[in-house]
Design a protein that fits this description.
By secondary structure, the protein is α+β, with helices and mostly antiparallel strands. It has helices at about 10-20, 35-40, 55-65, and strands at about 5, 30, 45-50, 50-55. The chain has 3 helices and 4 strands. Strand 1, helix 1 (about 10-20) and strand 2 form a beta-alpha-beta unit.
Length: about 70
């Protein structure tokens, strides 16, 4: 499973990063705003899972419901 967190290090971004770490979910983090703008993002954090883009609410649900067998 390929997971990328697009983060500006804002408080919500930091919460999402912490939750990913607590669930032992491996992820890459991108902090380059130009990349986020090129992808059409207007806010952060955004989470990309196997090509599917999730806003912060969708991402938090994904993380909360994640189990090891999902990998």
């Amino acid at each position: 499973m390929k997971i990328t967190l697009y983060s500006t290090k804002c408080p919500i971004c930091n919460v999402m990063s912490t939750k990913l770490k607590q669930k032992n979910i491996a992820y890459n983090e991108i902090n380059d705003v130009d990349i986020m703008i090129a992808k059409g993002f207007t806010r952060a954090p955004m989470l990309e899972v196997n090509g599917k883009i999730m806003n912060s609410a969708e991402a938090m649900k994904f993380i909360d419901n994640y189990t090891e067998r999902d990998n």
